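Reply to dn_fold:

You asked what the input looked like. This is it:
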Amino acid sequence: MKLLPVIFKRQLAIYAFSPATYFSVALFLALSATVGVYLNPWVEQGSGDLLVFFQLHPWLYLLLIPALTTQLWSDEADPGFEEMMSALPITAAERVIGKFMAAWVVAGMALMLCFPLVVAANYLGNADNGLIASQFAASWLLAGSYLSVGCFVCTLARQRVVTFILTIGLLLAASALSSCIDALERQTPIWIIDSLSALNPQSRFSTIDNGKFTLHDSLYFVSMMLTFLTATTITLNYKFR
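and this is what came back:
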């Protein structure tokens, strides 16, 4: 893992010099703030948390995450570049982890830019900063799990349009799973409902987002990231062995 910091810094530089990064982050922030305010009289209520904003993140990440993941392997589309990378002492795991961590850091920076909402919550009333911190952590974990899915999709199709569509499709299916569970609740055995609920990232996110920051739910997102990053590494090793 000696060259992992090199991969990490290089991917961060790619994001820093890409206009698409700034556009997607700005769109995420604008929609999070405006839609949250218009959907709920948050200002009038003087709410002590930011639930009305964070509950939108599973859907807003459908715009931000695909925009970040399509840039993960964009610099390696050239066959000559792949041959050069194969000749260097860089493992597939280093490439996958380094690129993923860079994308996750960018997602974290996008979340940190929501800090004015924290200031507003403290100004309007008695804000529960512990709850707000758990909401930020839950959103970052959700972003990481979505990014790991997008990272895996990128190894299956390198074309940006195809990758973008596939990533949105998978994340949309994950986000919409709760609606399917509600529709099947009275027609399906309870053990199937419980199994689907356990696999539903949005329900896990909602639990942490409501202030119930349990190790069990956190490990769910961590295991999801590890699973998809491992699958990405195996796929790269298979394609370039």
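The radius of gyration is 19 Å.
Hope that clears it up.
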